[in-house]
Amino acid sequence: MQNEDHLKKLQFLKKQFLYNVPVKELIWKDFSDLNVELQEQIIKHTIRFEAVLKYPVNINYQKAFVKSLLQYLEKQGSVIQDILYEEYGRLVALQSTTVNFKHYPLENCTRNIILKEDIRLISDGTTGLRTWQAALALSEWVLSNTACFHSKIILELGSGIGLTGLVISMLCTPQAVYLSDCHPSVLTTLCDNISFNINSDGDENGNISEKCLPERLVDCDKVSVLNLAWEDISPEFCQRLGHVDQIVAADVVYDNSLFKPLVSAVDNLFNYCGTEQFILSCTERNGETLNAFIQLLGQRYKVCDFAVPPQRNFLWPETPPVKIFNITHQ
Q1: What are the φ and ψ backbone dihedral angles of 237, each rounded to 5 degrees?
Q2: Strand stretches in 92-191, DSSP E
Q3: Secondary structure E strands in the chain
Q4: Distance of CA 59 to the CA centre of its chain
Q5: Residue 70 to residues 45, 76, 79, 124, 264, Cα–Cα distance (Å)
Q6: For 8, 15, 44, 328, which has the most beta carbons within 10 A of its beta carbon?
Q7: For residue 37, how far is the Cα from the chain centroid?
């Protein structure tokens, strides 16, 4: 079909599609010749991709994707393969929903991570039903530092729909991973995403075993979901939870009113669970808010910057910037 350069561009286009990169950012002209055969390959690797048919990328996004390609081909006066019109018609006939699946093809992983999310910025009174850029950057950092999590017990605060926790669970050989949140809709989606990606042995009511914490909703080989507000991370809770080597969190610093319960939770985990490291990823939307939180942590802990890794497995906007912090004992 094509030369090696075309194949690389096709794979990158597939990644953009699976991540729902805005269609205005797709550069069709990068392909030297969008011939009939290449058009078929684009459809095969995007809207007809087997995993997408089972777990659909948002229908409106798929329609916009195909429409963008059709408009470019028409503008260029190119011969258009019938399959493009057929697939566009099929998509138009489908009913749109607010449910969206994103697919993350990762290096050295035999299958994609699949996440169900909501296309709306705010749904059910929360922003936690989407994956935000700090979680993408932190997940990239995790993949660049997998040895840091080997045989460790990890607790993620404010897990949202679960990307970072799933990356750690599936690719870093931890001893155990606790994913936590406290919004009912977020927890439901988080549990769904674990079931899509990891074989879960827990029942729908969270009745795993008598030895499990009462807050635990899902329990499988290495991953547990906890219905856990930061205010509930007390010394007594920490004693029940047991040892935790590391805390991770992404995009949890955006409101000054959250500082007190978050810092208290971190203090109790360090003091009563033997935690030695807190890896925090933040999108710098408001520099004053972020700096105030980091200064507050700096009164208790040693805070250093980690370099944000280049985008290899994940794609995220470069503005506003993401910062990743390493928080340890003084």
Answers
A1: -60, -45
A2: 99-104, 113-118, 153-157, 176-181
A3: 99-104, 113-118, 153-157, 176-181, 216-219, 223-227, 246-250, 277-283, 301-306, 322-329
A4: 20
A5: 16, 10, 10, 36, 54
A6: 15
A7: 33
Helix/strand/coil for 280: strand
* Spatial CB neighbours of 109, under 8 Å, sequence gap ≥ 6: 170, 171
pLDDT tens figures, 101-131? 999 987 767 778 999 988 766 555 555 567 8
Rounded-to-integer distance, Cα 158 and Cα 160, Å: 6
Specify the length of the chain in residues: 330
Cα separation, 14 vs 12, whole angstroms: 5
- The pair of structure tokens assigned to 63 is 């329609």
Most confident range (mean pLDDT) of 86-90, 94-98, 104-108 is 86-90
Question: What Rg, from alpha-carbon coordinates, does the chain have?
Answer: 22
Task: Give the position of tokens 């503005």.
Answer: 319
What would the two tokens of residue 133 be? 């850029």
